[in-house]
Amino acid sequence: MSAVNREPVLDGWGFAGESFPPPAALWAWLQERLEGPCEPLPRWRPHRFRPPAGRRLPKLPGEVSTEALDRLRHARGRGLTDLVRLRTGTVPALPDAVLRPADVAELSSILAICSQAQVGVVPWGGGTSVTGGVNITAGPQKMISLDLARFRGLLELDDASGLATFGAGTPGPEVERPLAARGLTLGHYPQSWELSTVGGWVATRASGQESLGYGGIESLVAGVDLVAPRGGWSLAPQPASAAGPDLRQLVLGSEGRLGVIHRATLRVSARPQAAEVRAALLPSWSAGIEAVRTLVRARSGLHLLRLSDELETGVGLRVGLAGRRLAAALLRRWLLVRGAGAPGCLLLYGAAGRPRRVRGALAAAASVLRDHRALRLGAGPGRRWLADRFRHPYLRDALLDRGVAVDTLETAAPWSRLEDLTAAVRTALTATAAAWSERCPVLAHVSHPYPDGGSLYFTFFFRCPLDPEQAVERWAELKRAATRALLAAGGTLSHHHGVGAWHAPWLEDEIGRSGRTVLERAAAALDPDGILSPAALLDPTDRLEE
Amino acid sequence: MSAVNREPVLDGWGFAGESFPPPAALWAWLQERLEGPCEPLPRWRPHRFRPPAGRRLPKLPGEVSTEALDRLRHARGRGLTDLVRLRTGTVPALPDAVLRPADVAELSSILAICSQAQVGVVPWGGGTSVTGGVNITAGPQKMISLDLARFRGLLELDDASGLATFGAGTPGPEVERPLAARGLTLGHYPQSWELSTVGGWVATRASGQESLGYGGIESLVAGVDLVAPRGGWSLAPQPASAAGPDLRQLVLGSEGRLGVIHRATLRVSARPQAAEVRAALLPSWSAGIEAVRTLVRARSGLHLLRLSDELETGVGLRVGLAGRRLAAALLRRWLLVRGAGAPGCLLLYGAAGRPRRVRGALAAAASVLRDHRALRLGAGPGRRWLADRFRHPYLRDALLDRGVAVDTLETAAPWSRLEDLTAAVRTALTATAAAWSERCPVLAHVSHPYPDGGSLYFTFFFRCPLDPEQAVERWAELKRAATRALLAAGGTLSHHHGVGAWHAPWLEDEIGRSGRTVLERAAAALDPDGILSPAALLDPTDRLEE
Known about the structure:
The structure is a homodimer.
Chain A: H1 24-33, E1 64-65, H2 68-73, H3 80-88, E2 97-99, H4 104-117, E3 120-124, E4 143-147, E5 154-158, E6 163-167, H5 172-181, E7 184-185, H6 198-204, H7 211-214, H8 217-220, E8 221-228, E9 231-235, H9 248-251, E10 260-267, E11 269-270, E12 274-282, H10 285-297, E13 304-308, H11 310-321, H12 325-338, E14 345-353, H13 355-371, E15 375-378, H14 380-388, H15 395-401, E16 404-414, H16 418-435, E17 442-450, E18 453-463, H17 468-488, H18 507-526
Parallel strand pairs in A: 2-4, 3-4
Antiparallel strand pairs in A: 1-2, 5-6, 6-10, 7-11, 8-9, 8-10, 12-14, 12-15, 13-14, 13-17, 16-18, 17-18
């Protein structure tokens, strides 16, 4: 789980030496589903990379790196098309330099100089954005990547209040390690946890996989400190306040536009003494959603609820049961008895805390699930999911190696809309692919449930064209169709991936002209020259193909 | 509990025919504490009121009332000095007219016309602000009060998602009545509940007394609709979103400056089948805070925790035990056995929900309280508090009738600061009064606890000068001293009363220059002529004596 001494790869997700090749059953399933053969998307050799020299920058304080691979490393996030461009050497622009300020004084000075010289500044945490949020755009404006790696570690701890202050550049494992030593946890585990940082979580309103128990980052942030060209801004930790609007919630999701977040004070909890994840099969998507809704509205004390649709369940069981003939036979028998052809929908449900409370929450959940005609599957599927949960993103590179593009997208909506929303996104994706005479299988799950609704997470696959430009174009078409569909069906533009550059053209559809104007004015007040993350959040240019 | 057919009084709190005369034991306690005799502050006769005619306004659509008492009714909120000015006929300014738009079209048209003519507009819900938030200020600008009484009632219900949409002018009882008929509750019970409205709650970030269970209004709002001079703005209900900053949280607490809130979609829950409030005595303020902190951090499932300090406990027990000799004797005996001179600190703790869960939460709490050396007092004190909780504000008028001014102020802070904060505010108030050779007894309680901190609520008393200007002056001095002290001790400017006009001079101390600039720019974007609630939130003029 440690990120120390692990080298991030340049042309894919994560750390060198890690990978997650598709299980044979998944690969077989994909080959059935995707029409025609898949040709591997070759990798170039980034280490032979000789980029154009960075443009001349004003004199900047501290460490200024113009080293080619350092610039390449900071050129893109890790969305599907970032992976395609990085592995094929078709990255259109690099930052002119990478800066790693040592402290707030250096950070402030960099921003002041860049503001005066109109140099664009893109803050960089773990670089795991899947929405183009940290991508360097080509154009006349000089750009630097501002790496917060030196704003790192646990800075303060108010033990009585459960408030821990971290540097913005602290990655997930380095958040949990010092907390664990004190019997505490933040409990924030996004899929990118091993790489992504406190500052990135705050800037993008990230959610961890146990947000049901611990809350998303938007409820974990008590205070935040940032610096903009116009000066520093500290919002001290408070449990709650009616001193006007909650400006912390304006900083959360500001994606660099309101300033560079350099530290955050987070609400931490007692480390759970026990944690368990159980699995069950619900008869259908509709019945599963109803079960999850019931569990959450009854405040069941669970930390995790994750419901896969029929297709995702089918794939999951096929992978999970491969080589386990007896289990597979038993399951088939149960389906036969129940008169169901399909396996139904897999639900993972988990609790964490004191052993007695964990047992209580799981027992209460089991009783609700019984009412919803669920078949309980025990702890196996949950254990497998927990073991692999931070490895799943590596699958994207492994599938590109085999010529298959896989991406994910996500949204959220009130419970009353979730079923229609699922169908709308699936239809949009499959219809778009059908127009190219291709297939696009779509898996879906509900995670991050709330009393009034839940998030929907889609995984979609298509044959990756060998020409990277065509691959990017196809992905962009799918993405546009899905985004239009999810907004029309009442979903939010993003539940936890953020807006970045890629969702920005649709932001106004969600927050209205007034919302957009308010954000623009707020950004202009703190960053009058508009140097901070200029392509993210508020620039409506369609950059899906960049 | 119904507000229907009850006439609000013109020169005091609440409804005609209601009152809450001080219990004899409280009055005796006050007479011991306040040095010298108290002379009743006389009431004038508002019904004989002949105000100057309203100034000429541009032609406005809908019902335009210029009736004298209607204007008087909409001139002030219900803070202590509002009561003083209303009862002594020293209100410095009235709105030039009161408007009650019938729908969004009328509302929009009024705002457009007023914006063009530079007429100030103060939105009015229940008129219960205790921070000068709805007060009409004297000056050359013409002013209207915009009463939202016709935006009223349950407009939509999404039962599956637990989302209920109400008109902004709906008062508390009219929120709960239609919900109760459907087995639902909002569970938001501020002390002003019988009068205050949905729009007012949202505009000021109100908290209900059971916020521990249901959340403050900031977590109950899923969506909100407003109109500003620049147009309408709808933020659709979503369970959560990473589509940029949460702009709902910018509207929550905007106190009219970003637009007139005309409807809100609120998260509702199943109506609890059972609800119980129990009482216990903790040995000291410090031990009590520690017990509350422990209970909240352990997520004990309680809906209510309210801890009185020693002084408030003493007064409360004196009032509660008056005439109950046996109980008083038993308590004295227990204190003797324990070796304590003072009664300690009264804690009310309550749970609501399914009977089994209520029992479980109360039993778990009792076990924690045992560890904290608490004496359990049963259900009596809680029952009494519940019965009177919406009547307490009437005490202010009854005490003015007897020559005593009483006011409240509140803040919140992380747990680590609460004890120092309590002492700082108490010292500031008593020292200020001491400079006039007066006494100012201060009661305090913790309510609205969170895992990382809690709110502190202070009640303070002083002899009310017969000259209303001197009364206002003295109150302003106390208020300034307390506000400076609470900010210096790390408290927030307000936990749930809001900023209004009276706290506005200190807003920048809390949110910084950047925060202030961001809010000013946001307001200017939606209301370029600055007509909306011009004295509230962002105007740093000290208006405590107005």
